[in-house]
Amino acid sequence: MRRGFTTILVTHDLREAVYLADTVHVMSSRPGRIIATHDVPIERPRRPRTAYEARFMDIVARIREEIRGERNEQPPAGAHA
After folding, report:
1. What is Dmax (Cα atoms) for the chain?
2. Among 5, 59, 71, 74, which residue has the least CB neighbours within 10 Å?
């Protein structure tokens, strides 16, 4: 944080994404595109107990629902659009 650099982390772990990031971009499956962006308004430094706070769990739940909704809109594997 002292160096003030930017990094990009690609993960499938929603809790990890929310814990480490200031901004989480949610991507669709192929073709990959950003379907949602979430700012993470949780102050730093974050402590392990942060992952048990309601505001943290709310962000994770909202992202999980977006992913679930995106999966439900996708045609079955092998189907042509």
Report:
1. 50
2. 5
